[in-house]
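Fresh eyes needed here. Have a critical look at this protein's tokenised backbone.
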Amino acid sequence: MNALLPYAQVLASEGTGSAPGFDPVLLIMIAILVIFMVLTFRRGKKLRDEQSKARGGAVVGAQVVTAGGMVGTVVSRDEEAQRVTLEFSSGDRVDFLIGAIQQVVEPAATTED
């Protein structure tokens, strides 16, 4: 019986013609949620833009950092296979997916004639 009490109160207030009061706490909660969603979206977009810029800058001769923190120089890039070959200071060469490139440390040196 007590579970029906809130419904009875709502029905009683509707019958008298007076509308229930607006709760400002609800408005504040919705505003905080919207602000949180906007900030999260903007941060994610910024990170995606930075990563795509780093992947585009991973050309032959550039020094890059992978997602695992390995630093190497790009010696070849295969767009079809979406892979880059990095050479490390020890002389070893390893293939990575282009998506693993997180940052370009040193852009490729440009030769001017």
User: Anything to note?
Assistant: The CA atoms of residues 85 and 95 lie 4 Å apart. The beta strands are 63-66, 71-78, 83-87, 93-97, 101-106. The longest helix spans residues 24-56.
